[in-house]
């Protein structure tokens, strides 16, 4: 049976992401003495991610992670504490990546169709990455045993993305570019049009990751269908 401490730690990790607004500001364990080499932290986190995705959380060991990273177990424990903390860092990274997709464009204002297509393309590129597909399988296995973690993870990542997309749709509605009654439901419609069954097929191993051009075309088509379905209602119509 999974220890309650394990569940509590991962829920806390997601709460920290929410409080920090993503991964910025989150740090590993700090202590007295001279500054630590950040490259070792990166090596440890990369090794932990590889091990978790390859073997799963329970089959991964501190010994294997340390060996992959080229560090001693003492160094790993001093910097991160334990295996659960490394898993927390992995979850934080994925949550931060997903939330970053909806940050304002540095290129300035964009036409609604272009902005939605760009967001859809970026989202699908991430969701269809082999590593993310493996992460999706991994996190599904973990949260299946922890309903509380499942709720917190959804609110911190997919739920927050739905809210960000709904806000964009609300802004477009205020400008008269779309007509919606429920922006969150509209966001779900748009996401479904982008993804179709592709992510499900990838998770089952039935298809290979689509090439970039196919992903762009999928996002553009989904956006086009969405904008037609939610086109403004003519006055008096």
Characteristic terms for this protein:
DNA-binding transcription factor activity, transcription regulation, 237 residues, elongated, mainly alpha, Tetracycline Repressor, domain 2, 2 domains
Structure description:
The chain has 237 residues and is mainly α. It folds into two domains: 38-81, Orthogonal Bundle (Arc Repressor Mutant, subunit A), CATH 1.10.10.60; 84-230, Tetracycline Repressor, domain 2. It has twelve helices and no strands. It has helices spanning 4-20, 38-55, 62-69, 73-80, 83-100, 112-127, 130-143, 147-156, 158-174, 183-195, 198-203, 212-229. Residues 1-7, 9-14 and 16-28 have low confidence and may be disordered. GO terms for molecular function: DNA-binding transcription factor activity; transcription cis-regulatory region binding. It holds the Pfam family TetR_N. Residues 61-80 bind DNA. Keywords: DNA-binding, Transcription, Transcription regulation. Residues 38-98 form the HTH tetR-type domain.
Name the structural class: mainly alpha
Count, helices:
12
**Count of structural domains:** 2
Mean pLDDT: 81
Give the DSSP E fraction (strand runs of 2 or more residues).
Answer: under 5%
Share of helical residues:
55-70%
| CATH hierarchy, class of the largest domain | Mainly Alpha
Number of β-strand runs: 0
Name the CATH architecture of the largest domain: Orthogonal Bundle
- The gyration radius over C-alpha positions equals 20 Å
* Pattern of helices and strands: HHHHHHHHHHHH
Q: What is the fourth-level CATH superfamily of the largest domain?
A: Tetracycline Repressor, domain 2
Query: What characterizes the major β-sheet?
Result: none
Low-confidence stretches: 1-7, 9-14, 16-28
Distance between the termini: 61 Å
């Amino acid at each position: 049976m999974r220890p309650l401490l394990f569940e509590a730690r991962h829920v806390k990790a997601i709460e920290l992401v929410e409080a920090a607004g993503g991964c910025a500001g989150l740090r590993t364990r700090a202590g007295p003495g001279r500054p630590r080499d950040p490259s070792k932290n990166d090596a440890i986190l990369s090794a932990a991610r590889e091990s978790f995705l390859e073997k799963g959380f329970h089959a991964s060991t501190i010994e294997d992670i340390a060996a992959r990273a080229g560090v001693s177990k003492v160094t790993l424990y001093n910097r991160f504490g334990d295996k659960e903390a490394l898993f927390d860092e992995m979850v934080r990274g994925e949550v931060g990546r997903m939330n970053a997709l909806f940050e304002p464009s540095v290129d300035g204002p964009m036409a609604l169709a272009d902005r939605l297509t760009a967001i859809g393309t970026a989202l699908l590129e991430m969701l269809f990455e082999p590593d993310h597909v493996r992460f999706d399988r991994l996190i599904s296995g973990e949260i299946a045993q922890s309903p509380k973690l499942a709720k917190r993870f959804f609110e911190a990542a997919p739920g927050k993305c739905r809210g960000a997309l709904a806000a964009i749709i609300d802004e477009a509605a205020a400008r008269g570019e779309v007509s919606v009654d429920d922006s969150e439901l509209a966001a779900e419609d748009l996401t479904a049009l982008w993804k179709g069954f592709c992510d499900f097929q990838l998770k089952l191993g039935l298809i290979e990751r689509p090439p970039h051009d196919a992903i762009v075309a999928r996002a553009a088509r989904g956006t086009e269908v969405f904008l037609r379905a939610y086109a403004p209602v003519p006055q008096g119509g």
